[in-house]
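Q: Can I see a sequence and its folded structure?
A: Here is a first one.
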Amino acid sequence: MFEGLFSQEGRFARFMNLLWSLILTSALWIVCSLPIVTAGAAASAAYYAVAKTVRFHTGSTAPEFFRCFKQNLRQSLPVSLGLTLTLALVVAEAMYLYSDESVPLWFLYVFYLMALLLAALGVYLWPCLSRFEMGNVALLRMGVVLMFRYLHFTLAFLLGLGALLAGIWLMPWGLPLFPGLAVYLETFLMEKVLIRCSPKPEEGSPEAKKWYYHVSGDDLEASDER
């Protein structure tokens, strides 16, 4: 019994591998997000690395993270900068209005809603960037469409984001783990969305061998799958 539990393929070993991958992803995401404008590329890389290596057991976490980060860095910069500045302005304005007692409460709620919509948009943008090849205008359009089409998922993602922020605030010692864990949990819903947006490949075609179609990593084209 215990030999199976502590073997290289046992539950304990699998759990420790999962834990290490999530901690590593968290560390890479934090470090690569420090310049702020690179946060989008880091979020895209974190999703890609966790979905591919942890969920579908293909590749190694750090190489896949940096592969996606470098591939999407240039494209993500204007989107990340614009989204960050807009969200910062909305939050700053909401805080300013909150301190003004003459401002109607409903008007304050408008800014709260705007902040939630921007956060929800970001939740969809970076996984889409990691999966699909498209321009920034198309990427933003896709993010908006998915945000409303899968509204029940969007609400779940926002609750998860709130739980992540609350967890970091209340338990700062969990910062090395919480971001990677949040991305891992996100993949269970986000993959349902992304797979529906992906064209159904013909059986036996190179496209059908991509990792996100649940094909074993042994069958992948190692050099050029996205």
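Q: Show me another, different protein.
A: A second, unrelated one:
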Amino acid sequence: MKTLLKFVFFIPFIVIVIISCQQIKNITHTLSSFSSLRFKIENITEFKLAGVPIATKSSINDFSPIDAVKIGQEIARNKLPASFIINIAVKNPNTGVGGTKPIPVTIKQMSWTLFIDGIQTVSGKLQKEFQYPASNTVGHLPLEVSIDLFEFFGNRGYDGLINLALYLGGIKSDPSKIAIEAIPTFSTPFGDYQSPKIRITSDSFN
């Protein structure tokens, strides 16, 4: 009788162990199949040069005399403040395709460094979290940038600085001149994951 009672009480323990092992196995399988988010620079918007919007401009001649004087005064002080938004397209590959578990991912934090024409410039960190569901929908990450272009490109002179700004944020804006090196930390239902350093360009999703 005592043996029978021991066996009866032992059954729930076995069940708990089996369930716990299966849960651990599922979590391990999910983590092993986890893929980091993929990034690609989409475009540059809201570019302002010394406070002057340049999205509709294609050459130095498009600036009004007042705007040209304003920019010229900044350059005369060895400064040329610029602000813009780098819009990054984001893909979450953890959609559940191929028998893997769909995993929503949040960018909890990300430190980044901006390269322009291959030259390392300013660095920063995200100010808030961004969430990306487990779907095939492409999400977005707006990266706000403030930079003194003169500090890094002042040797190009007035025309060179203006042309660089127009190439980045003018009417024919081309994001191929920029790249971002970043170290994101992802938050998942199973904990945080810090990615190795990644390089984000406009060429393809990385």
